[in-house]
Amino acid sequence: MEERSLRITGADRTFFNKITNTLTKILIPTKIGINGMLIAIKRNSVLKAYENYKEENENYNQEELEKKYNITYENYLDSLDKYVMDSIYKKVRNGTATEFEKSAMSRYYEVTSLKESEYIEYKYRKQKYLLELDYENIKIEAKEKLIQKYNKFYISKMDTLYKSILKNYSIKVADTTNIYDSSKEWIYTKIFHTLEEYIENILSLKIEINYDERIKDIISEYEKYESYTVGKLDLRDSIEKNMVLLGISRKLYTHSLPLIVAEQCYEKLLKDARCLVQDTKIATKRERTYAMLINLIEDYNIKLLSTKVYWESPKKRDNYKKFWDKYKEISKLKEVDFIEYVKQKEILFIKDDMKKLDKGKTDYSKLLKYYKRKLVDYGVLRELRNSYTSEGKYVKKIKEVA
User: Tens digits of per-residue pLDDT, 314-340?
Assistant: First the structure.
């Protein structure tokens, strides 16, 4: 009897489980439909509130319009969050989810995992995730008229969210209390990743719909970035790509990614590039990596330091002023003798970088040797005929040409 009872109980449980699973699968599409309608209603409300808020109308109180817009935006996000938990989560759990829904749930977990340790980042990342999720659905299901209407709201809100995320990273980079990892490598990685996300998802959309006339100023930089989106990138390519990202950021995020933070990002790339040059053993690859380093030095000095107003010390400011005066003098050769211009510019960059390497903590002895060889080839330094023994080795003496 006991065995029979156990078998019957087990059979009943299995039976009721099957019924429950079947009902759940039946009800899920209904919930999706209900959530879909709610999302559409909330979406229309926020789009209308956004248009009213952005229009300059003297007959309406701007503060009241902004307040209404913020309330409708929060309600819209709540409906999207409910859709994720009521529909996508249950479909993933019951094994009826599509690949898109599985990916969406995976990204949702990735975002919510930030809540305990990085709440500020979580707050912005979750909003970004929910908007991206609905935007994907709109592009698949909605009419062109709604897509065009939504684009304005979507770009405006995404601009705000990306700026907030970058501002949060900037605060951490500038932090000197040692609460975070002293090397801050992970923050730099996040900054570059976020810039890349923005350019791929938002800037590309702005260019596609001709969102703003000011975008024309960075089209050439964007095209450079696009060249790094094809194929597998090595370390040199990654550094070059991040250099382009920083160049674009100086035009897009001058406040969210302030100069002091951008300067540290450039210095991080310079360190990586210098180490790569001296660690590369194959001559042809080293030459290409060296050319990349020279371009990076130019970007750092011209795009960033030339715009710097506040310096750590008068000495550093005066040293850069001397460098800048020489650079402007060399630039005059560009139209007269381009080859000589490139040569003199490279010599200037090498000499300036050598001064910085002597003061750093990293061992750049191999790079300094490589720089000196370049200066010998350009006739700036010359090797003396005599050599001397140092620790059992013969070393050529090098002297600067008078």
Answer: 999 999 999 999 999 999 999 999 999
